[in-house]
Amino acid sequence: MIWVEFLFYSAIIVYSAIKLAEYGDVIAIRTRLGGMLIGIILMAGATSLPELLTTINAISQGVPNLAAGNMFGSNMFNMFILGAMGLINIRTRILRKVARRHALTGALTILMICFAIFFVLADLEIKIGWVGIDSIILLFTYIAALLIIQKDSHTAHEIAEAQEDDFEGIPSLAAGLLGFALSTALLIIVMPALVGTSAEIAEITGLGTGFVGTTLVAIVTSLPEMITTIAAVRLGVYDMAVGNLFGSNMFNMFSLGISDVIMTKGLFMSVISDDFIIVGMLGLIMTALGLVGNLAKLERKFIIFEFDALALIVTYILGMGLIYLRGIAI
Predict the structure, then answer these.
(1) Angle between helix 238-262 and helix 133-152 axes, rounded to 10 deg
(2) What is the DSSP string of 197-244?
(3) What is the C-alpha separation between 152 and 276, in angstroms, rounded?
(4) What residues form the membrane-spanning segments (predicted)?
């Protein structure tokens, strides 16, 4: 019965994520902002809400390692999605087709992951009020990163010359915003139930909270990113797809900072097990590989597969094997 519930909630999330991609595209066209900026800000924030909700629930239930595993593990799975899209779409070199401006997003994402890993190791006891200085730095870094991306982005000019006739058949901005908000709300409502069923499945299997957070829960909460990315790729909106994945990794690190605001007793970064450094580093390596793939524009292939996409897939599989062998924070 629990597996039936899991599949039911997953189906709802798939539907919501597809709608997110469709309405995000409408907003991108109607606001003339372009797919890249919408992918980084709107799409990434909305599709990363499940991770944030999982973190809130995990903290309230006294299992911070589940929250940490979810965030760091989600970073890995997001980059796995990027690699999978490269393998599935053999004829379309996704990382070659998107704007090189994603390099800035990728670099800022790497910076935030580095901060998070450093803070877990540093175990700082400095705080302002009940919030640790490390979490405050993460929060302000995310805000600064969005401002830098917005200032650097020139995507407004990509479709600025579009005439009203070009919008024929495209829903209005109001309809796009309403649809986007309703799809996001549905994710917020359904995701806690999906996470609950995942936790129950984990309990039945006897796996630890840290390992489950890094694997099962991270994959489950990343389903919106996966489906939204697939939908965006099918629509040909590659900038939105890649921006969503890089932006989601940034938002995950931002969520670590929010976790400390929610956790009024103790400092969140200080209670995370050092074992998660491995998971964080794997996510960092995979994000760096995605950045290299965006910048390098490699033309050589391994048989019919792109080297960068294949590297992401292999790194994820080997990384999961290492995490299993180490028994992360069980």
Answers:
(1) 160
(2) HHHHHHHHHT--HHHHIIIIIHHHHTHHHHHHHHHHHHTT-HHHHHHH
(3) 33
(4) 6-24, 36-59, 71-90, 102-122, 128-149, 170-195, 201-223, 235-256, 276-296, 303-325
Instruction: State the pLDDT at residue 163.
Output: 47
Please say whether the beta carbons of 260 and 116 come within 8 A.
no
Comparing CA positions, the residue from 246, 252, 235 lying closest to residue 102 is 246
Amino acid at 242: V
Ranges of the chain whose pLDDT falls below 50: 155-165
What angle separates helix 307-326 from helix 64-88, to the nearest 10 degrees? 150
Question: CA 50 → CA 39, 184, 189, 303, distances in Å?
Answer: 17, 10, 10, 37
What domains are defined for the chain?
A: 2-326 (1.20.1420.30)
What is the C-alpha R_g of the chain? 19
How much is the pTM? 0.79
CA distance 178 to 201: 35
d(CA 72, CA 269): 13
Q: What is the pLDDT, as a whole number, of residue 317?
A: 93
**Alpha carbons 229 and 227: distance in angstroms, whole number:** 5
